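To: structure desk
From: M.T.
Subject: fold request, one chain
Message: Could you run this one when you get a chance? Sequence is below, nothing fancy, just the single chain.
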Amino acid sequence: MKLQRMIACASLAICMSASMFAQNLNLVQRSHYPYPGKTCANITGYVDTTGREYALVGVSDGLSIVDVTDPVNPVQVKKIPNIDDLWKEVKVYGKYAYVTTEGGGGLQIVNMSSLPNAAGIVYHSWQPVIPGAGGGTLESIHALHIDGHFVYLYGSNLFNGGAIAADLTDPWNPVYAGKYEVGSGNQAYVHDGYVRNDTLYAGHIYAGYFSIVDFTNKSAPVEIANQFTPNNFTHNTWLSTDSKTLFTTDEVDGSYVTSYNITDPANIVELDRIQSNPGSQSIGHNTHIIQVNGNDYAVTSWYKDGLTIVDAGRPHNLVQVANYDNYAGSGGGFEGNWGVYPYLPSGNIIASNIEDGLYVYTPTYERACYLEGIITDSVTGLPLNGASIEILSTSVNENTTISGNYATGIPSPGGTFSVKYSKAGYLSKTFTNISLVPAGVTLKDVALVPVQSFSMSGQVITSGTGIPVANANILISNPDFSYQATTNASGNFTISGMYADTYEIIAGKWGYVTSCVQNTALNNGTAPLVIELAPGYYDDFTFNFGWAVSGNAATGDWERGIPVGTTNAGSSANPGADDNFDCGDKAYVTGNGGGAAADDDVDNGSTLLTSPIFDLSTFTNPYVNYSRWFFNGGGAGSPNDSVTIKLSNGISTVMIDFARFNSPGNSSWVPKAFQVSNFIAPTSNMRIQVRTADLSTSGHLVEAGFDQFSVTEGLMTGVESIVSGSSLNAYPNPFSSEINIAFKVTEKLSDAAVIVSDVTGRMIDKRSIDQQEGTIIFENLNAGIYFVNIQNGNTPGTPVKIIKLK
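Reply: Done. Structure tokens follow.
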């Protein structure tokens, strides 16, 4: 449960919080020091010669030095001014603090040797002209780390943002020593890093990997290895105490703290990954490793999930053992806890929240209670991948790896628990007396018994005639199992290796209406299935019926699959699901790579989706029906892209539908129905085409979707009817957002137009027409009654009354 935010402080007085927050695990908040009107970035600690402890907080307008010796009563002793900028990073070498910012001004150096006498603190900026950088002056720096007597600067304005090393033998006057720059642009840019014994572990955030660099020779560093991280947005790195394990974070929604065995840089192995609050999409920002009582812990700032402590003593089995969340919101995004510092001699942890300042915590470092083992098939003895382990009465739910191994656990104090082991196709096992103890490893190997399988047969026939349907597609599935088959020449099929369960049964073929039956119990005694398909045309894209994709777009081509949602500025770009009024879960969408809205949208060209041929010559009054999706946003200026849907009869092609950036219903599935004869003569050689394009250079995002295509005899039940005039049709009518006006004239004159008038005869809108038939979409009409007519010389037309609902 998320916490309620503390009542805002009216001044710089301390906001005490012991009774104002919900209970958290193994962390006690001692105090809060706010910075009204200012944001905070990263944080570090310092201890003066008298043993007093300080928090050094990167505030937007400078460095705040706060005495936290009494954790309940922090006191700011000095504010060092700096360029006003959100990004501030600070590290300490001896009695000196080094502050970076992306706002410019180089590296700020603060001499704190006078503390606890704050009046004696002095500071200046180091802005050298760096040799080999084309005479460039050091200005902006994103982050830094200090190892030995060298400071390493990351993400600066020089060397494509690669790492810069400077000698701190004279802490007040650093000397440029060398740089690490591999490639250019995203590859070279190092966002943050960790250095130990002249070895750099660099986070190439935009390239998505960390590199291991031998920086012993500062003028000629050597890259030893690199490794991509789970979310391909590598932010922060930190070493275990024994230098055998590297921990990373990815600064992106839904990220992880991840551990790697780096003992052999030529064979880096991912060991485990953990999230602070699985499903919350929170971003892990900065993790640090501290050893307490001989055991490593990962102390991490998670933007919207606060501060967490993970027992990292078994790096292949990371278990969260403490947490404190002081941010009221939840989810992804860059608000909340920026940084933590766990190394003060008192053991207290200081943390910085972007919006509301410095926090002081007292931790209790508890060991985890571990549960590990392997799950196998009881018959074959082979390991089972993806088997589930649930520690009942807790939120722990782990899966086995490809080797059948699992590793999980819970925080102290442990106890006796029931643990359920399960996998689809196997009988579940629950053990009720598994003992879990702090720092102890309970080993539990489990062999699951496979469920007996059976064969399911059936036949697909044409409804009303009983004629077998050859080459029909069959899908029998539920969340655990999925089986597919194709009928033979006699319409028969057989599926072997099925397990007794309740299934959805879908059968279809182009030229027939798909059959979809849910919640059907199938077992060894079930009689052969008989599935009837009615002739017609229906496609919800459960099966591949042969729609063709063409075009020249660089990315974002049409593809059939389960939609992976993306968002832009709070609006859905790519749909997150298909139209839920059909069978199955698939649709055609433009690009389906997920990630950010711009990652796989339509770029620099067009993409065209074309149906197989369908025969309408035997229909009396055919209607084409479908649902479409469109999104166009982002970039510079008003978006100017569109999606168009056309109908062809093999002789001519007409547009029946069109959407642009401000069309009603965008970012949702919009159902459509069109009477074919209003646009084009039905033939035996019909196709529908869906085209969208990104033809501008303004960076606009373009996404489209198409689902639930069908042809019906007359208007589908539940769809509002079309009102006919002598040469006009309107749909839907009444309407709530937009209305489609289909027009047809026997001869088009130069002044031909479609006119919308109100009940007094006053013209509200006029659209010129440049062809004899087509469709115009009217939007943004106020609620009321209107009349639509055609102006075409002296040719009279019969007006159509349309009604716009409130």
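Reply (cont.): The longest strand covers residues 701-713. Let me know if you need anything else for the meeting.
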